[in-house]
Design a protein that fits this description.
Elements: H1 11-20, H2 27-37, E1 42-45, H3 52-66, E2 76-81, H4 85-98, E3 106-109, H5 115-122, E4 126-131, H6 133-141, E5 152-155, H7 158-163, H8 167-176, E6 182-187, H9 192-199, E7 206-209, E8 220-226, H10 232-245, E9 252-255, H11 259-271, E10 276-279, H12 285-297, E11 302-305, H13 307-310, E12 320-323, H14 330-337, E13 347-353, H15 358-368, E14 373-374, H16 381-386, H17 390-395, H18 468-491, H19 495-501, H20 507-520
Parallel strand pairs: 1-6, 1-7, 2-4, 2-5, 3-4, 5-6, 8-13, 8-14, 9-11, 9-12, 10-11, 12-13
Bound molecules: adenosine monophosphate.
Length: 521
């Protein structure tokens, strides 16, 4: 069976698919749809971008349409739970598209906007409701909704739900749902804790797995640059600038670990002349929607996002994912790089790894069974960084600039035809053309130094919002702002000036400082 028309879906649904230009089901759709049409429960292990929304939407719409029923006040026939607002809105939009030739209504509720309007919309009842868990329970507590008549229940992105601490909310939802229902449970990863959660929702499910568990999206080419935390902003700015100038970057998402970090990185990218917007939970819904729309339309090529906010970004044409900081939960890396390479496209993921993040990198490599290729710093990194505007440049000052990696060209290159040395880059051209410029081979082993003893902080240790080295930078910056800005005015550009600005700092200083911080912590 290779066409949607072979799967037994109702004609109005096939027509809607035709409008979208979808003819062939994706593997998860092929595997799920027949079992779901029979009313079976489903446990789906699928990464983002596999087409899982349609996998659960199409057969559900078919079954609801085949058994038409009058709407009941303040209730729904199908409930889809999603961890984030963006993802909920995305799912609802998709469902509306697939249901456009049916007489089924779709609504979406999530936090961040007044509850009253949502409650009023629910008065007559709705066929399909997409919700985030918190707002769903608020509506139930306000007696604006009952879910006791739900016929089909979908829990999407279960692992993310757990990460976000929705476990108790989900247990409450499980108790409020009717025993007789069809349940679908999706997760990108399936550790034991998620499987246990799944058992509370699904009975005797068909298990569908479209990619081996936690396998990194195959089409994503992965690179890592080793550098110090304060140098990251300069490298990011230079890399994105070059990729944009060479027309390789269509859309890029930069991941930061914290909301403040996202704001700072977006601000600094803008200062460097790159149109970038931040998207995270502290932004209003209107700001998030506007940023996503600008990104979708291409007027803003770079989005800086925290993991949670990025969950709902379903934008095709994301060519690059940048991990400004490595996630301390390795599964998060899989989610992040899944933002690119959606629906068959290919993509590039570039991670910036500071010395204290090397243990995270090892965890990621263990999980994904992929070692990203090492991307050396650009040849003229120092001089180019020195020419960046003050806020970006300053972030890199007072850095230990001792380099343990060769310099070469950084930024989004594709793998060189499967070369095993992984070092020579082709400059990341999306058209595959090589520019033949001088390149420096950077054998991977050279750059994979073991973390220093003071860098072996584990992922379960509490992390402060600001990496320690950045804290130090902040303190030092306050001490020595004035003379440096003078120097910047007089010496703008030259490498000598850059070297003066990026004053070498011995490892002992860094180590001593970190040890001091650790004792305080
Ligand atoms: P999802 O994994 O549900 O987030 O879907 C990823 C992207 O693939 C979305 O943009 C979908 O609209 C698109 N998509 C889903 N199913 C198909 C299909 N059968 N053919 C082409 N694109 C699809």
């Amino acid at each position: 069976m290779s066409y949607f028309s072979d799967l037994g879906l109702a004609e109005p649904i096939l027509r809607a698919l035709e409008t979208k230009g979808y003819t062939d089901p994706t593997p998860i759709q092929r595997q799920s749809i027949p079992a779901l049409l029979e009313g079976r429960d489903l446990l789906g292990i699928a990464q983002t971008g596999t087409g899982k929304t349609a996998a659960f939407a199409l057969p559900s719409l078919h079954r609801l349409a085949a058994d038409p029923q009058p709407r009941k006040p303040a209730s729904c026939r199908m409930l889809v739970l999603s961890p984030t607002r963006e993802l909920a809105a995305q799912i609802a939009d998709n469902m509306k598209g697939y249901a456009k030739n049916l007489r089924l209504t779709v609504d979406c509720v999530f936090g961040g906007i007044p509850i009253g309007k949502q409650a009023r919309r629910l008065v007559p009842g709705v066929d399909i409701l997409v919700a985030t868990p918190g707002r769903l329970l608020d509506l139930i507590d306000n007696r604006a909704l009952t879910i006791g008549r739900t016929e089909i229940f979908v829990l999407d992105e279960a692992d993310q739900m757990m990460d976000l601490g929705f476990i108790h909310a989900l247990k409450r939802v499980a108790n409020l749902l009717p025993a007789k229902r069809q349940s679908l449970f999706f997760s990108a990863t399936m550790p034991k804790s998620i499987e246990d959660l799944g058992k509370q929702f699904i009975k005797n499910p068909v298990r569908v797995e479209v990619a081996p568990q936690s396998t990194t999206a195959e089409r994503v080419e992965q690179f890592v640059s080793f550098l110090n935390q304060p140098e990251k902003q300069a490298l990011l700015s230079l890399t994105i600038r070059r990729l944009l100038a060479e027309k390789q970057l269509d859309r890029g998402i930069v991941f930061t670990r914290t909301k403040h970090g996202a704001d700072r990185v977006a601000r600094n990218l803008s200062a460097a002349g790159i149109d970038a917007r931040a998207i995270h939970g502290n932004k209003s819904q209107a700001q998030r929607t506007a940023a996503l729309e600008a990104f979708r339309q291409g007027s803003c090529p770079v989005l800086v996002a925290t993991d949670i906010a990025a969950r709902g970004i379903d934008v095709s044409g994301v060519s690059h994912v940048f991990n400004f900081e490595l996630p301390n939960v390795p599964e998060q890396y899989v989610h992040r790089i899944g933002r690119t390479a959606r629906a068959g496209a290919d993509g590039v993921a570039i991670s910036f790894c500071a010395p204290d993040e090397k243990p995270y990198l090892r965890d990621i490599e263990r999980l994904t069974k992929v070692k990203p290729d090492v991307m050396p710093l650009p040849e003229n990194f120092l001089a180019d960084a020195a020419r960046l505007p003050a806020p970006v440049r300053r972030a890199a000052e007072d850095t230990d600039m001792r380099r343990d990696q060769p310099r070469g060209r950084a930024g989004g290159g594709r793998r060189d035809g499967g070369r095993s040395d992984g070092g020579r880059q082709d400059g990341g051209r999306r058209d595959g053309r090589r520019d033949g410029g001088p390149r420096q081979d950077a054998p991977r082993a050279d750059n994979r130094g073991e973390p220093r003893r003071d860098d072996t902080r584990r992922s379960d240790a509490p992390r402060s919002d600001t990496p320690r080295s950045a804290d130090r930078t902040g303190q030092d910056r306050r001490r020595s702002d004035a003379p440096r800005s003078d120097a910047a005015r007089h010496d703008a550009g030259g490498e000598a000036a850059a070297k003066r600005r990026f004053r070498p700092r011995g490892p002992a200083t860094t180590g001593q400082h970190r040890n001091k911080v650790r004792r305080v912590v």
